[in-house]
Amino acid sequence: MSDALICGLAGAGAGIIAQLITYPLDTVNTRQQTDRNSKKMKKTLSTIEQMSQVVKQEGWDGLYGGLAPSLVGTAASQGVYYYFYQILRNRAETNALARKKNGIGDGSVGMFSSLLVAALSGCVNVLLTNPIWVVVTRMQTHTKKDKDDHTESVASQDEISVVVEPPPYGTSHTIQEVYGEAGISGFWNGIFPTLFMVSNPAIQFMLYETLLKKMRKRRASSNKGANDVTALEIFLLGAMAKLGATVVTYPLLVVKSRLQAKQKVGADKRHQYKGTLDAMMKIIRYEGFHGFYNGMGTKIVQSVLAAAILFMIKEELVRGARWLFTGTTAATSVR
C-alpha cells in the first residue's frame, strides 16, 4: 500500500473521530457565524449557554443536525486532502534532495514549498467536497423556529386552521431544497471564500511541519532520536498550528457560512447576499468589522481541539498502518 494511501485513510479515520467529539461546538459556531443581527440587538451568551439553549428548545438533535453528511464530508475531505498532500509533499522532498546534490539548500522542504503543497491539496479538496458542506451548513442552521415558520406559511397559504407538518429536514430534503433554489450551481455556493480558505490548512500545515521539523532536529542533535515524538507533543503542535491559522483566516469562514446558509425569501435585503463581495460589504456596513468575528471564541476551541485530536490520531494510525503493511514506521517513497 502506498504511503499516500495510508495517509489518506488515516486522515479520514482521524477526521471522523475528531468530528464526532467536537460536532456540538461546530453546530453552535455555524449558527453564531450566520447570525445577522446587529451587535446592539444581540444578547451575548457563552458557548455553553448557547448549547444549553439549543438542547432546551430543540432537543439533543439540534446539536447534531447534519451529522451524517458531515461525517461523510469529513472522511472525504481529510482523505482527499491527506492523499494529495502526501503525494505533493513527497515530490517536494524529492526535489529538495535533488537541489541539495547540486549544492542548493540543505535537502529539506522550505516554508514556501510547504505552504504551496498544502494550498494545492486544499484546492483539490474544496472543489471536490464543497457540495457536502453546503448541505451540512444548511442542516446545522435549520432551527426549530424555521420549522415553525414553514408550518405557519403552509397553513396560511391553504387558508385552513389545521396545522400542516412540514417534511423532515433530512439530508435528501436539504439536497432538494438547494437544487430547487439555485440548481447544480447552488452546491458550490461560497466556493470563492472557501478556496481562499485553503490558506487556513495551508498555514496550519506550514506551522505544523515547521514546528515538527524543529523538534525532530533538536531531538536528533541531542541523541534522543529524530522520530521520538510523543502523541501528546503531536497534539500540542497540532493545536498551536491550528490556533495560528484560525486567527488569520476566520473572517473568510464567516463569509463562507453566510453564503452557504439558506437565504430567506422576503427577509431584510441587508441579510441577503448575491456573492462574496456583496456579503463582505453588507457585513461591514450593517454589522461593522466585528461581524467578521462572530463566534470566533467558539471556533478557536472547536477547531484547535479537533485539529489536535486529528493530528494525534492520524499520526498514530499512520505509524500502525506502516508497521502492519511494511514492517517499519518510516515513510515509503511515492513516485
UniProtKB/TrEMBL annotation:
Keyword presence, Transport: yes
Subcellular location: Membrane
Solcar repeats, residue ranges: 2-91, 109-214, 229-320
Presence of keyword Transmembrane helix: yes
Protein's name in the database: Peroxisomal nicotinamide adenine dinucleotide carrier
Recorded topology in the membrane: Multi-pass membrane protein
Family affiliation: Belongs to the mitochondrial carrier (TC 2.A.29) family.
Residue ranges of coiled coil: none
InterPro entries: MCP_dom_sf, MCP_transmembrane, SLC25A32-like
Gene Ontology molecular function, alphabetical: transmembrane transporter activity
GO biological process, one term: NAD transport
Record's keyword terms, sorted: Membrane, Repeat, Transmembrane, Transmembrane helix, Transport
Biological source species: Capsicum annuum (Capsicum pepper)
Predominant localisation class: membrane
A GO CC term attached to the entry: peroxisomal membrane
Membrane spanning residue stretches: 104-128, 187-208, 229-253, 291-313
